[in-house]
Design brief:
alpha+beta; 174 residues; elongated; 3-stranded antiparallel beta sheet; two-stranded antiparallel ribbon
């Protein structure tokens, strides 16, 4: 049986006493110490002890950072969804990774249905064909800005400025 605390896992030993897993691991390391000394691997065993010592705190920090990242993503999505402009992000494979609510409304798509769809499944084939050179240029790393009429909506004619900005990937030095 185990239950979780803030930084530790508590187990019940053979006598039904609560013990911290880290305490059990420290006991095990003490019993392994003479063997490690005989094998000449005391430094490795000390490394394991350091990992155990830092582990619970590290796991908590990772969980907190992940929660903060999820909150920032929700905040950014909320900001973009409440903008009246059509905003979308398409990957190098021409599949959508994000489209705000204005984008969904304009193309009569159910909310959240755009991610994963290919551009050819959303765009008008004629418009897509006429913009193919610009799309290929953006994929080749050349920023693109152009104007075009969007597909008509009842009672509305909209001309849009389209921007295709290649994603810059920072390369790490070897």
């Amino acid at each position: 049986t185990a239950r979780y605390g803030m930084d530790a896992i508590i187990i019940l030993d053979s006598r039904n006493r609560e013990r911290l897993v880290t305490d059990e691991l420290h006991d095990l390391l003490e019993r392994l110490s003479p063997i490690a000394r005989r094998l000449g691997c005391e430094a490795e065993l000390a490394g394991v002890e350091e990992i155990i010592r830092r582990g619970a705190s590290y796991q908590r920090q990772v969980a907190e950072q992940a929660a903060a990242l999820r909150q920032r993503e929700r905040d950014m999505k909320s900001i973009l969804d409440n903008m009246p402009s059509l905003i979308s992000y398409w990957g190098a494979d021409l599949r959508n990774r994000f489209g705000n609510q204005a984008y969904h409304r304009w193309f009569h798509l159910p909310p959240g249905s755009l991610p994963g769809r290919h551009l050819r499944d959303v765009a008008d084939p004629d418009r897509l064909a006429s913009n193919e050179p610009r799309i290929q240029a953006a994929l080749a790393g050349q920023p693109q800005t152009f104007e075009m009429a969007l597909p008509p909506q009842p009672g509305r004619e909209v001309h849009a400025r389209i921007g295709g900005e290649p994603q810059r990937v920072r390369r790490r030095k070897p």
